[in-house]
Amino acid sequence: MFIAHGEYRVDIQQNLLIVEAKGPFNKEVVKQYALEMQHAVQKMQSPWGQLIIMHQDSLFTPEAEKLMHKSARARKLSGLYACAIVLVETTVRFAIEHQVSNIYRRADIAHDFFDCEQQARAWLQELKPQI
């Protein structure tokens, strides 16, 4: 077992789950993240959106990517309608977009990438299902 590598913070604002993260990430930190997300999701009212702000070169090890996919599927079943991802100060944008898209596409979750938080929030608002 390795020491958790990567940082994240989870916050809830109305019906938006916000994650601010800085990688790279290994499976140990993703296990912690998945557990914390489980608790946060229980506080959400369906449908809800997710905003992820990824700083620097936030890539996942192969094992961490598999766990992220499992966590994403669980969030979809709990009412997640879309995920907006903002990439900040990265030198490997294409690699991050490819890896993160793979996670959310396989979980059948609408997602897109943005340069700023304002655009990401607007996109989530557009996609928000009307109850």
CATH superfamily: STAS domain
Class of secondary structure makeup: alpha/beta
Q: Count the domains.
A: 1
Please estimate the helix content: 40-55%
User: Beta fraction of the residues?
Assistant: 25-35%
CATH topology category name: Transcription Regulator spoIIAA
Relevant terms:
131 residues; Transcription Regulator spoIIAA; five-stranded mixed beta sheet; globular
Report on the architecture of this protein.
It is a single chain. The chain is 43% helix and 27% strand. With 131 residues, the protein is an alpha/beta fold. It has a single domain, classed as Transcription Regulator spoIIAA (2-Layer Sandwich), CATH 3.30.750. It has a five-stranded mixed sheet with strand order 1-2-3-4-5, with helices on both faces. Strand 3, helix 2 and strand 4 form a beta-alpha-beta unit. Helix 1 runs parallel beside helix 2 and helix 2 crosses helix 3.
